[in-house]
Amino acid sequence: MSEGRERQATARIGVLPRRALVPVAVAAAFLYSNFLIDWVLRGFHGLDIVVSLLASPGQPNAAVLRVTDVVCAVLVLLLLPAFFAALPPGPTRKVVAWTMVAFALGVVAAVIVPAPCGPEHLCASTSDRLDEPIHDAASILSEVSLFVSAAATWFAMRSTGPNWFRRAAWGTFWVGGVALNLLFGWYLEVSDSPTAEGLAGYVQRLHILSVSAWILCIGIHASRAAPLCAEEEPW
After folding, report:
1. Does residue 76 fall inside a structural domain?
2. Could you read off the pLDDT of 30-40 as tens digits, one per residue?
3. Which residues span the domain enclosing 109?
4. Which among 139, 173, 175, 188 would be 20 to 30 A from 212, CA to CA?
């Protein structure tokens, strides 16, 4: 590697050297889709279970899922300064930064207050009935923030930057954030089909994979882009 390229690879943007951005994004993307870990540990069963129920008290892999969720949130925050620096200057990238922070905080909050009742268990106690809406609110905060961040990224880069990244932002919002969420809600809350809950689990996993793909795209773009305004902090 030439001296110039080596200097570029080791240059720090925020807390991470440029060469670390993609590996960190890969790790964060994998950990966000930690239902794959649960699936393997369960003996390749359980893909039809709503994901939040996998981390509820008493589930065999709950601790693993909660820890990996928190680690994922931390890794996303580590990516944020470099991603922020790679976005065009303007108020929209502040929206990107703060919604990504809200995403990470929502993930952690959903870990602190997990879904109280696992698969095939009804929430009967007062404590369970209190925890369930808190967990749901934290999950919704995380989800909405992530997809607003993707939409804001597309808006900030609508006339600049690589085409593939703009398309990734557009697709993340409309496919992962809108279409798959609507389909998930339909199966879980509206459909009376006997297979609806299982189908909701499968659709939810596609939705989660779309988030993982977006996290990976963030790391790749941040690693390739020249900082546009690196001296300004995201907050």
Report:
1. yes
2. 999 999 999 99
3. 3-224
4. 188
- Residue 103 structure tokens: 């995403």
Decide if 103 contacts 149 (C-beta within 8 A).
yes
Q: Which residue matches tokens 């698969």?
A: 119
CATH of the domain at 140: 1.20.1070
